[in-house]
C-alpha cells in the first residue's frame, strides 16, 4: 500500500505564447507544492522509449508530422489553441513515460495510488491530431498499456475536467470495448462533444452538467450516476483525468466548485476503488488554470489519495 507522485522538471520548459492559460507557471507551482508537502512520495519520471505505446493510440501520420516540426527558438501553432516549442515534444513524451511508470507502480501492490504531475494535458488529443492544449492522449495511452501489459479485463478512465475528454473517447469508441470512459463536463462548452447519447460500444458514459452547477449537485452526479454505472463494468484499474478547471475561481468555465469539493470527490473515488478494483488508481493532471485554485485543489486531491492507502 503506497502512494507516489511522478514528476519531472521538463514540464516547466514546454513554452506557450504569453497569455495562454496552459502556461508553465501551472507546473512550476505544483512542483513546488509536491516538493514542499510530499517529499517522501515524489519520484522523478525516468526516460524510456514509449513510441510503441503512443502508436497504439495515435496514427503514424500524426506522429510523423509532429517529428517533422522544427520549433527551435520559435513557438509553433499546431492547432487553434495548441502550441509546441523546443522542449514540448520531450515534455509530452515524458508525460507518457510518467503514466506508464505510474501504472506499473500501482499494479505491483494492491491499494496503491499514484499521481502524474505533468503537462501538456492529454484528454483532447485525438488519434490523428492535437487539440485543446493537448499533444498525446495520456490517459488513453496509459489505459491501453495497462490492459495489454497486465492482461486486465477492464480499465476505466474517469474524467472530471470541466471539458469533455473527446480525445480519450475517440480512441475508446474505436473497437476498445474493454476500456471504459466516464466524463462529467460543462455543456455547452469546448469541445462541443460529450452528449449523453454518445455511448460508443456501450463503454462510454457522458454526464453533461449545466453552467453554474454547485459542488453539492456535482458530487451527487458522481455518487448517484457515474460511479454506479462504473461498478457495473467491474474495472480492475481506475485512471483519473484530473482536471481542476470547474473551480469557481477558474474563468475558463462557469461551474462553481470549491477546492474542498475535489477533496470529497477524490475520497469518493478512492472508497469506490478500494471496494471494487483493489484500490488501484492512477491520476494524471489535466486542466486547471487559476493558479491559486489549482494549487489548493491539487493539494487536497493528493492528501486524499495519500490518506486512502
State the helical fraction.
25-40%
Distance between the termini: 5 Å
Low-confidence stretches: none
Mean pLDDT comes to 97
Strand content range: 5-15%
What's the CATH architecture?
Answer: 3-Layer(aba) Sandwich
CATH topology: Arginase, Chain A
How would you sum up the global shape? globular
Q: Specify the CATH homologous superfamily.
A: Histone deacetylase domain
The H/E string reads: EHEHHEEHEHEHEEHEHEH
Radius of gyration: 17 Å
Question: In which order are the strands of the major sheet placed?
Answer: 2-1-5-10-9-6-7-8
Q: What would the keywords be for this entry?
A:
309 residues, alpha/beta, Arginase, Chain A, 8-stranded parallel β-sheet, two-stranded antiparallel sheet, 9 helices
Describe this structure in words.
This protein has 309 residues and is α/β, with parallel strands linked by helices. It has nine helices and ten strands. It has one domain: 3-Layer(aba) Sandwich (Arginase, Chain A).
Outline the secondary-structure elements.
Elements: E1 3-7, H1 24-37, E2 42-44, H2 51-54, H3 60-67, E3 76-77, E4 83-84, H4 88-108, E5 113-116, H5 138-149, E6 155-159, H6 166-172, E7 179-186, E8 204-209, H7 215-233, E9 238-242, H8 259-276, E10 281-285, H9 291-307
Amino acid at each position: 500500500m503506497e502512494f507516489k507522485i511522478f514528476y519531472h522538471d521538463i514540464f516547466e520548459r514546454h513554452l506557450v505564447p504569453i497569455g495562454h492559460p496552459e502556461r508553465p507557471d501551472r507546473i512550476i507551482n505544483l512542483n513546488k507544492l509536491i516538493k514542499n508537502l510530499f517529499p517522501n512520495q515524489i519520484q522523478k519520471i525516468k526516460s524510456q522509449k514509449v513510441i510503441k505505446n503512443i502508436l497504439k493510440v495515435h496514427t503514424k501520420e500524426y506522429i510523423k508530422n509532429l517529428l517533422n516540426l522544427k520549433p527551435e527558438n520559435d513557438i509553433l501553432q499546431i492547432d487553434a489553441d495548441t502550441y509546441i516549442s523546443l522542449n514540448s515534444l520531450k515534455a509530452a513524451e515524458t508525460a507518457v513515460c510518467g503514466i506508464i511508470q505510474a501504472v506499473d507502480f500501482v499494479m505491483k501492490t494492491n491499494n496503491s495510488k499514484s499521481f502524474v504531475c505533468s503537462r501538456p494535458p492529454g484528454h483532447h488529443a485525438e488519434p490523428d491530431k492535437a487539440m485543446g492544449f493537448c499533444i498525446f492522449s495520456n490517459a488513453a495511452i496509459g489505459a491501453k498499456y495497462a490492459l495489454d501489459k497486465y492482461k486486465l479485463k477492464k480499465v476505466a478512465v474517469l474524467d472530471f475536467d470541466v471539458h469533455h475528454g473527446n480525445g480519450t473517447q475517440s480512441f475508446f469508441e474505436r473497437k476498445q470495448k474493454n476500456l471504459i470512459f466516464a466524463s462529467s463536463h460543462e455543456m455547452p462548452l469546448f469541445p462541443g462533444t460529450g452528449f449523453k447519447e454518445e455511448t460508443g460500444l456501450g463503454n462510454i458514459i457522458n454526464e453533461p452538467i449545466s453552467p453554474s452547477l454547485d459542488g453539492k449537485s456535482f458530487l451527487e452526479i458522481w455518487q448517484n450516476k457515474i460511479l454506479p454505472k462504473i461498478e457495473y463494468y467491474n474495472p480492475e484499474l481506475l485512471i483519473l483525468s484530473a482536471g481542476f478547471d470547474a473551480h469557481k475561481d477558474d474563468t475558463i468555465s462557469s461551474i462553481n466548485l470549491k477546492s474542498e469539493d475535489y477533496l470529497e470527490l477524490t475520497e469518493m473515488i478512492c472508497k469506490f476503488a478500494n471496494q471494487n478494483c483493489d484500490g488501484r488508481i492512477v491520476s494524471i493532471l489535466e486542466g486547471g488554470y487559476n493558479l491559486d485554485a489549482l494549487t489548493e485543489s491539487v493539494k487536497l486531491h493528493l492528501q486524499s489519495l495519500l490518506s486512502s492507502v
